[in-house]
Amino acid sequence: MCVLVDAIEEEHYTESKARREDDDWQQTSSIHPMAGVKRNRAEMESKEQEDSPSPYLPMFEHFKSEIDTHHDRRERVIKASRDITAYSKKIIFALQRTKEIGKPLTDRKALTDMTKLKQQIKETFEGVTDDLQGINAHRYQRQISPGIQEFMEAALFEHYLVNQAIMTHSEAATTIPAGITLTYEDYVLGIFDMTGELMKIAITYMATNGKLPGLQGGASVLTDMQTMRTQLELINAGHGPFAKEFEGKLRVTRQSVEKVEISVYSMTVRGKEMPKGWKPDINMRQPVEEIESY
């Protein structure tokens, strides 16, 4: 009996001791959550990396700044190109009022308007000169090119009306502010566009005067256009975006020359039978063979 009592007391003592140890461990864990848990090295290093700044952060901040600067510069160039295009179109419209070729312009209103527009174009070019230096001249060529082409069309058109001649590339480059590059591609594409304006001048002049505009005893607009067409057809545009644009504008130039040729044909063959002021039908279907001269 004594042995049984001793066994029961020993069991109660053991359970009581175990409960006390369990309570002590829980109290310790509540104070130190990680007490008794061994942390591995990888977790410790990860914690240290989270606390310290990334060594790549400054590099990506630099990239972000470069991209923001690029987009701002690109938007400025695009806006400038659009403004130059709009101003140049107004100059071309004013030049269409010219009544004679090979003589100085005399329309005072047109001259006044053109002077203001040229100044606006100059200021717009100068506003993006810094954005088009060095490698950026090539980087943003596609953005500024439309404006340069339109301005070339206006400058070449004015020069032809006054002198009945085409400016060379070096002469045309002087019409653009220093720091802006005039590529041969933009120069040639500007000539293409100018032939369309010459076609309008020629047909309007024939409708009101019964003859082609040009110097007395010299070449006419038609012969000049035919010469330009022949010279442009000799250019090897190669491959790429320029070649595609070149072919498209060459096709339009051929159509412009053919319209003037057909109008001259109509004026020469049938014009004498028509009343004064009769306008040749430029939409008449072209003949099978090209008319080289009249």
TrEMBL record:
Query: What's the source species for this entry?
Result: Lithohypha guttulata
Note the CDD domains from the entry. Answer: TRAX
| Pfam families in alphabetical order | Translin
- InterPro entries from the entry? Translin_C, Translin_fam, Translin_N, Translin_sf
Establish whether keyword Cytoplasm is in the entry. yes
* Protein known as: Translin-associated protein X
Q: Where is the composition biased (Basic and acidic residues)?
A: 13-22, 40-50
GO terms, molecular function: sequence-specific DNA binding
CC per GO annotation: cytoplasm; nucleus
Q: Which UniProt keywords apply?
A: Cytoplasm, Nucleus
Subcellular location field: Cytoplasm; Nucleus
Q: Which family does it belong to?
A: Belongs to the translin family.
Q: Using the UniProt annotation, give all residue ranges assigned to the region (Disordered).
A: 13-57
